[in-house]
Amino acid sequence: MGIVAGAGLALGPGATLPAAAQPQDDAQPAGHRSDRTTIQMLIFDGFEVTDALAPFDTWKIAGHLGAPIDTRLVALNDASEVTALDGVRVKPTAPFSPFADILVVPGAPALVRSGQQPPGLNAVLTAWRSAHRTLATVCTGAVHAARAGVLTGRNVNTHRSSHDVIRALGVNLVKARVVDDGNIISSGGVTSGIDLALHLIERYAGPPHALATEEVLEYERRGTVWRLPWRIP
After folding, report:
1. Distance separating alpha carbons of residues 8 and 57, to the nearest angstrom
2. What's the CA gap between 216 and 212, in Å, rounded?
3. DSSP conformational letter for 206
4. Smallest Cα–Cα separation from 131: which of 4, 1, 26, 32?
5. 198: containing domain
6. Which of the listed residues 4, 76, 97, 172 has the most CB atoms within 10 Å of its CB?
7. Could you give the number of structural domains in the chain?
8. 19 CB-near residues (< 8 Å, 6+ apart)
9. Is 62 inside a domain boundary?
10. pTM score, whole prediction
């Protein structure tokens, strides 16, 4: 899918338009369904449960309702089980694939506060962005992505507790509940991950599927989706 830049529109305070849009026409493996969107939620020790599992469940519901979305819970370093914040243990539902359409990174508050990165995350994110694939972050997952060097100069939001941290890492902070910067999509803290999930359903599967999923969740989106003046054909 190509990305077409618009012109003559104000981007808002603190936001910038990247010099060039990233192509997303990478070769796919045999059997890849180009008519479906595959989303991988990446989990690792210390991740915040709501950041990861609320969006994951939202996409699963959308898929059950007929949206052309396939969702996987994948573990960093192919771990068979990871321990989330506060000791919740979670097993992945599938192995990591470098050919998925979207990779989503949740936050990990304790790691963010200590300045640590999940082992192996930097290499995964660097390779993902080098392949020009879409990356999404929930809450302080943006801090991990910024520390990996893949958000420099991009328009992003994160949990309010990390606004100063993200600015210091060379990211343009946009204080919207969901920020759609083309092939970088991010949300603010915790529950805004549900809004990000519904936005991705609308963007890739259409408003009827997003609305149907909202009705099952009995959840109404709030806040603003900040978007660049781009169009995704």
Report:
1. 39
2. 6
3. -
4. 26
5. 36-231
6. 172
7. 1
8. none
9. yes
10. 0.85
